[in-house]
Design goal:
The chain is an alpha/beta fold. The chain is built from 19 helices and 16 strands. It is about 35% helix and about 15% strand. The strands form 4 sheets. A 5-stranded parallel β-sheet has the order 3-2-1-4-16. Strands 6-14-7-8-9 form a 5-stranded parallel β-sheet.
C-alpha cells in the first residue's frame, strides 16, 4: 500500500457538500479472476488501495446516533476509525479499531458485516451501505504492512493468573483484553498451531494464515503465554488448572465434533466430515503434498452437503484440489442458505454447481469400499419451522442418483465434549453446549467462564469475539474482588 499525505483528503472532505458524498459509489476490492484463483490457494480479494479506501471512508455520514456500533458484537467505534481513514491517518484508524477489537485483520475478512454493522448502516437505507468490513481490513493491513504495529502500554501486574482453554477467536479476544489489564494470561491450545477454527477451518484463500499468525504474534508481544499441543481434559483438567495457581479459567474450545446424517453407506471411504477435509487442507497443508506430510484424496466429482460458510469453504477447496465437478447439495432453496452472499457469489463464479431443494438419502460404493454415487430426493418448501425458514418437504418418487467419488458432510458441528466431561459441576444443555449467563458468560462453576461455539454451537468469528470481550470484562471484575 502506498503512502498518502495526511490531511489532504481531510481538507477535501471539509469542502465537500454532503450531497456530493452521496454520489460516491461504493468501492469494490479488486480480486483474482475466477479462472486464476481456482488453480491456487492465494487470497481472492486484494484489499482496497489507499485512494479507494479514502473514497469509501468519505461515504460515511458520521451519524450522531451511530447505529452501526450497536450492530457490532464488539462495539467498535466505527465512525471514529472511518473518519481517521478519510483524513489519511491509516495507522490511527488501526489503533482506534484495536481499542475494542483484538483481531481487526481477521474480522475485516471473515465477519458477516452485511448482517451486522452494514445491515444497520444509515446510508444503506437509500444507498449501498458503507463497506465497513473492507475498511477494517484496509486499516489493519496497512498498519502491519508498513511495520507500524505498536505495543500499547499494559497495566501494572495484578498478580492474578488466568488460563484460557482454546485459541480460537473467543480465547484470543479474552487474552488480548486481560493482558492489557495487567493479568498474567496463558492460552492452552490442543493443536500444534494457535488460532483454532481460524487456522484449521477457514481456507487460505479466505483467510491467509500469515494474518492469523500476525495477530497471535501481537498477543505474545503483549505478554500472553501460549502452550500448544496441550489438551485440557487429558494432560490437565479444569480443576488442576486451579491447583496450578490460576485464579480464573475461560473455556473456548469450540464446536469441533462433526455432525453426520446417519444414512446408509455413510462409512464408505471418500466420505469426509468438513472438519477433517478442511483441517487436512488448511492446517496440515495437504494441498501442497508431498511437500507437506499430510495427503488428501483429490476427487474428480465432489459433493458437499450443506449450505453454510463451511460448505462454501469445502466446495471451493475441492475445486482448487482439482475437482472437475464440485456440487453443493442443499435441502432448502438459495434464499434460505446461511452462507455469506460473497461466498456464494465467489463459488458461482468459480463454477460450483448448486443442487437446491435436494436431500441425500443413501450412498453406494464399489467392492473396494469407496463411495461411487449418492442417492438424492427432491424437496419442496412447506411452512416455516422453528428457525423461521420454510421447512423442506420430500417429493415422493423424485429420487435420482449423482455419480461422486468424494463427499464432504458440512451440516454443522456439535460442541467439543472433552472439557465438560472432565469438569464436575459444569452445566451443559441437551446439545452439550456449556450453559452460561448471557451477559457475563459465567458458567455454573465458580471462577469459570465460557464463550464462542462451545456455548452457542457453530456461529461466526465476531460473535465468538463478542462473547470473549464480555467474559473478559466480567473476569476482570471478579479478579478485583480476590
Amino acid at each position: 500500500m502506498g503512502e498518502i499525505i495526511p490531511g489532504t483528503v481531510e481538507r477535501r472532505c471539509g469542502l465537500m457538500d454532503p450531497k456530493e458524498r452521496l454520489k460516491i459509489p461504493r468501492q469494490q476490492m479488486p480480486e483474482q479472476s475466477p479462472e486464476k484463483r481456482i488453480k491456487n490457494f492465494k487470497e481472492v480479494p486484494f484489499g482496497l488501495p489507499p485512494e479507494s479506501a479514502q473514497q469509501e471512508a468519505q461515504r460515511c455520514l458520521q451519524c450522531k446516533k451511530a447505529v452501526c456500533i450497536s450492530g457490532c458484537p464488539v462495539e467498535v467505534n466505527i465512525p471514529a476509525f472511518i473518519k481517521l481513514i478519510a483524513e489519511g491517518d491509516f495507522v490511527g484508524a488501526a489503533k482506534e479499531l484495536k481499542k475494542n477489537n483484538s483481531l481487526p485483520a481477521i474480522c475485516g475478512r471473515v465477519c458477516p458485516q452485511e448482517d451486522q454493522c452494514e445491515w444497520v448502516c444509515t446510508l444503506g437505507k437509500k444507498y449501498k451501505p458503507v463497506a465497513i468490513g473492507a475498511l477494517e481490513r484496509f486499516a489493519a493491513d496497512y498498519e502491519r504492512e508498513q511495520g507500524k504495529v505498536e505495543i500499547p502500554q499494559v497495566a501494572p501486574p495484578t498478580g492474578k493468573k488466568v488460563a484460557i482453554v482454546g485459541s480460537g477467536p473467543a480465547g484470543l479476544t479474552v487474552a488480548g483484553d486481560l493482558i492489557k489489564l495487567g493479568h498474567q494470561v496463558t492460552i492452552f491450545e490442543a493443536l500444534h498451531k494457535t488460532g483454532g477454527v481460524l487456522v484449521y477451518g477457514i481456507p487460505e484463500f479466505r483467510l491467509p494464515k500469515t494474518i492469523v499468525q500476525a495477530e497471535v504474534d501481537y498477543l505474545e508481544r503483549l505478554g500472553v503465554e501460549i502452550k500448544t499441543s496441550f489438551v485440557i481434559g487429558k494432560l490437565w483438567t479444569i480443576n488442576e488448572l486451579f491447583d496450578q495457581g490460576y485464579h480464573a479459567v475461560f473455556i473456548g474450545t469450540g464446536a469441533g465434533l462433526p455432525n453426520f446424517m446417519h444414512i446408509p453407506g455413510e462409512n464408505l471411504n471418500g466420505i469426509y466430515s468438513a472438519n477433517e477435509y478442511l483441517t487436512r487442507s488448511n492446517l496440515m497443508k495437504a494441498y501442497n503434498f508431498p511437500e507437506s506430510d499430510t495427503p488428501i484424496f483429490s476427487g474428480k466429482n465432489v459433493a458437499v452437503l450443506g449450505g453454510g460458510n463451511t460448505a462454501m469453504d469445502s466446495v471451493r477447496t475441492a475445486l482448487r484440489l482439482g475437482a472437475e465437478n464440485a456440487y453443493i447439495v442443499y435441502r432448502r432453496s438459495r434464499e434460505e442458505m446461511p452462507a455469506r452472499k460473497d461466498e456464494i457469489h465467489h463459488a458461482e463464479e468459480e463454477g460450483v454447481q448448486f443442487h437446491f431443494l435436494t436431500a441425500p438419502i443413501k450412498y453406494y460404493g464399489n467392492q473396494e469400499g469407496w463411495v461411487t454415487s449418492l442417492v438424492c430426493l427432491r424437496m419442496e418448501l412447506g411452512e416455516p419451522d422453528a428457525s423461521g425458514r420454510r421447512r423442506p418437504v420430500p417429493i415422493e418418487g423424485s429420487n435420482f442418483v449423482m455419480e461422486v467419488d468424494t463427499v464432504v458432510v458440512a451440516i454443522g458441528n456439535s460442541s467439543n465434549p472433552l472439557v465438560p466431561q472432565t469438569t464436575p459441576g459444569l452445566e451443559v444443555n441437551k446439545w452439550g453446549n456449556i450453559v452460561t449467563d448471557e451477559t457475563t458468560m459465567r458458567t455454573s462453576r465458580q471462577g469459570v467462564w465460557a464463550g464462542g461455539d462451545i456455548v452457542t454451537g457453530g456461529a461466526t468469528v465476531i460473535l465468538a469475539a463478542g462473547a470473549g470481550k464480555a467474559a473478559a470484562k466480567d473476569i476482570h471484575r471478579y479478579l478485583e474482588t480476590l
